[in-house]
Design brief:
By secondary structure, the protein is α/β, with parallel strands linked by helices. The protein contains eleven helices and twelve strands. The chain has helices at about 5, 20-30, 40-50, 70-80, 95-100, 115-210, 215-240, 255-265, 265-270, 290-305, 360-370; strands at about 10-15, 35-40, 55-60, 85-90, 105-110, 250, 275-280, 285-290, 315-320, 325-330, 375-380, 385-390. Strand 11 and strand 12 form a beta hairpin. The structure holds adenosine-5'-triphosphate and magnesium ion.
Length: about 400
């Protein structure tokens, strides 16, 4: 025999005030392998349950003092894992229904058939095992759900923590980028300003060395020119750095374009440059600082006019799609050498002996401020086209 087979089939308590029935039932069940406890009254029965914790109670309905129904309710309330089968007299089916409602798992009519009783006990014990297992599974499920909820909370807290760390890191990166740009700008600026300063120092030396009046005036003139140059470099630098206060208003880009073109008339005439404007669609107003939008045009026009020989063509195209106002400025200049393309938007990058290399960096800064885009759409020996896109106030994309 294995240990498993030695295990009792179940622990059963029989509660009946008729000693004969009690003993008889006990013998039958013991013979079938159950571990049996007995009690002659409901009170004794409750005490036995408390002590022995049987899986099943066979409980007589008709008992003095505490009746079977009261005992049944008490057992079910205090020991939900103890199942109950009731003994009732024949002809009391209505009572049986009431007992089932009160929590009995089954009922057996007296006098009973031994085999029938054992079968009922078996099936109630099986039902009990399944139900208890279900209950255990449900509570395990609850436990797991609570654990998952805990994990989720922890995960959320960690995500929150990481996001904050990321936010801090981002601020640090932005700051260090700003510092890097500042360093870069200072280096470029120092270079730009040192040249005119050297010239000024040289002219002063010459003046000091004793010159006649007209030469002296000539050098003073040159010094003033160099001072102007430093002043213009500083002016451009201030434009390049973000202006703290924008004058935001409703801006009609096509109007600013026309006004800027008009302002360029003398230079255009002087170089006999033809202007071809192509206003495909008049875009709706955008919210912007008009001076900044003007500066986009000015700096692009200045570059184009500068690189073109006489009789060139300055093309300006204005259009709109679902997301952007599209602006194109083209010229018939010599084009940008491909090796310079990665650098043209860098502050102080210039191939122009009188330029400071800030024009396009200002344009880039402004375009970025409005979350727009700028690119060299085309550049070859027939000319260059810059494309600028500024987001619409109510984009449809
Ligand atoms: N339309 C163009 N055609 C050819 N090259 C261009 C054109 N626009 C810009 N570039 C090139 O890009 C460089 C940088 O332009 P950017 O406007 O930033 O500076 P700059 O014109 O040299 O000086 P600044 O604008 O400060 O007077 C120019 O020196 C030139 O080499
Ligand atoms: Mg320029």
């Amino acid at each position: 025999m294995t240990t498993l087979e030695k295990q009792p089939r179940g622990r059963v308590l029989i509660v009946d005030d008729e000693k004969v029935i009690l003993d008889l039932t006990a013998i039958i069940l013991k013979n079938r392998g159950y571990q049996v406890f007995t009690a002659l009254s409901a009170q004794d029965g409750l005490a036995a349950i408390e002590k022995e914790r049987p899986e099943l109670v066979l409980l007589d309905y008709m008992m003095p003092n505490m009746d079977g129904l009261t005992a049944l309710k008490e057992i079910r309330r205090r020991y939900p894992e103890t199942y109950v089968i009731m003994f009732t007299g024949k002809g009391s089916e209505e009572i049986a229904v009431e007992l089932m409602k009160a929590g009995a798992s089954d009922y057996i009519l007296k006098p009973f058939n031994n085999q029938d009783m054992v079968e009922r006990i078996e099936s109630v014990l099986k039902l009990r095992a399944v139900e208890l297992q279900n209950r255990a599974l449900l509570s395990e499920r609850e436990r797991l759900l609570a654990e998952i909820a805990d994990w989720n909370r922890e995960l959320e807290a960690r995500v929150q923590e990481k996001s904050e760390a990321l936010g801090r890191a981002q601020v640090e990166i932005v700051q260090s980028e700003k510092l890097a740009t500042l360093g870069y700008l200072s280096a470029g600026m120092a270079h730009e300003i040192r040249n005119p300063l050297n010239s000024i120092a040289l002219f002063v030396q010459l003046i000091k060395s004793g010159l006649d009046e007209s030469e002296r005036l000539d050098y003073v003139e040159k010094i003033l020119k160099e001072v102007d140059r430093i002043d213009s470099i500083l002016g451009k630098l201030l434009d390049a750095s973000k202006r703290p206060r924008f004058e935001i208003s409703e801006v009609q880009v096509d109007r600013i374009l026309q006004n800027t073109l008009e302002a360029f008339t003398p230079q255009l005439k002087q170089k006999r440059i033809k202007v071809v404007t192509d206003l495909r669609r008049i875009p709706p107003a955008i919210k912007a600082d008009p001076l900044e939008i003007e500066q986009i045009f000015t700096n692009l026009f200045l570059n184009s006019i500068h690189v073109m020989a006489e009789d060139g063509t300055l093309g300006v195209q204005l259009d709109q799609d679902d997301c952007y106002i599209n602006l194109k400025v083209s010229d018939t200049g010599p084009g940008i050498p491909p090796e310079n393309l990665p650098n043209i938007f860098d502050p102080f990058f210039t191939t122009n002996s009188r330029g400071t290399g800030l024009g396009l960096s200002v344009v880039l800064r402004i375009v970025k401020t409005y979350k727009g885009k700028i690119e060299v759409e085309k550049s070859d020996s027939s000319g260059t086209t810059f494309s600028v896109r500024l987001p619409l106030v109510t984009p449809k994309c």
